[in-house]
Amino acid sequence: MRAASVAYAVAVQLQPADADAYRLYGVTVRATGDTATALRAYDAALTLRPNDGLAYFSRGNALSGAQERIGAYRLAVRHLPAHYGARSNLVTMLRGEQRAEEAGAVMRDWARASHRIKGGPSTLSPWLPVDSSRRPRLATTGEPLTCPPLPR
What we know:
Blueprint: H1 2-14, H2 19-31, H3 35-48, H4 53-62, H5 66-79, H6 84-96, H7 100-117, H8 121-124
């Protein structure tokens, strides 16, 4: 995974307005154990593309607090309703927090959504275009997004 994280670090440097590069950089550095850097990369991806269900899902997987994870998975499901992992993780987290009624509601919504969106346009293009003409900033702090340093 280290080689992949180096490749995505280069991708972020070459394409600083590419939300996918930040998200995938986060996935690869999380796999090496660097959760803090991964969370920052997911935040950068979400700053560039606030409705990125995959970034919310990845962020939920990296968070440690149950309530934070539930929130991230809810946002992932909202923006990417057909994502099996996001719904499954949300239901698992709700059940683990003794919130069976909410878990049941998510399951019922899942059953309805699977019939409604199967192959529909919402599953093919869930993102809005990004205006790359301005320098992106972190939504949480307003700081300019910085490219990660290349590992040595």
